[in-house]
């Protein structure tokens, strides 16, 4: 949806539709793991109205006359905007004729709205007018297919439109593995398994990326086509089930350590430097002794060596769900940060209790474990 919003062709086509009228584009992205406003009808209407008024502030006085008059008279109006108030303002705004205006709304993730979906559909249908277009997206849930599945020429299924891209990606990635070429020569079914990966992905690129990573591992181990096919067909198609399966395959020796890694990544206010994770391996039984004052800051070379080791650990123990990346506005070792592979991974951990445990990350980890490492890294930079 963000791609459609940012694409110049979208703007150009909408301007043709608007003609001489003013064009206003507004958007909302439901997020099930976010705040109440990010997953409710009230949040939807607030977000849309905010976008509209930001684009055309001159329309506020017309759409919200009571509140506008109170503001002009220096009167305080602290009443809460109810869904009914917001809907009334929206309809007043879109039905006014003094300033000819056409509106296009982009609303993503209907399935992530936690309120009654039938009521959400009624609300969305009530927004449609001759001068209002709406582009909606959702997972293939029956309630939304029943409501918006017809006519067929106005419906797009992601898997039907990015199939070739996923197929090309899978083919290209497998061809880079040295064991794939010989396998192609001796087994004609290799083209079939590329197509099967593509079909089973159902248009979800992230699923294909994760499966291809496993294929690289299996090819390294010398798996034949028979075993590759069996393993692929045992792979969960649902992303969240796949995440669970990946973590359950972890050796029990690493479970406690990995749980702390993911908890730290999830609770951190922003992606932390890789070195912030270096202390987790030491355990959390005696947090007061995690970073003894006598420890000397690591040299820059030693920090890079440790970062490389931690990167390997995250790839192996974290199953690639966490990644190390470079942040260009930082210097030296601080520029290497850890973040989730994709937002859906963060959402998965936010919604599930898979990280629950007594060996998890405590609330004071930032003061006792993370901050000392960031501080020592900064001191090291000053000494160089």
TrEMBL record:
Alphabetically sorted, this entry's keywords are: Repeat
Residue span, Nephrocystin 3-like N-terminal domain: 26-139
Q: Which InterPro entries match?
A: DUF7791 (IPR056693), NPHP3-like_N (IPR056884), P-loop_NTPase (IPR027417)
Domain DUF7791: start-end pairs: 249-354
Listed Pfam families:
DUF7791, NPHP3_N
Q: What is this protein called?
A: DNA, SC011
The protein's organism comes out as Aspergillus oryzae (strain ATCC 42149 / RIB 40)
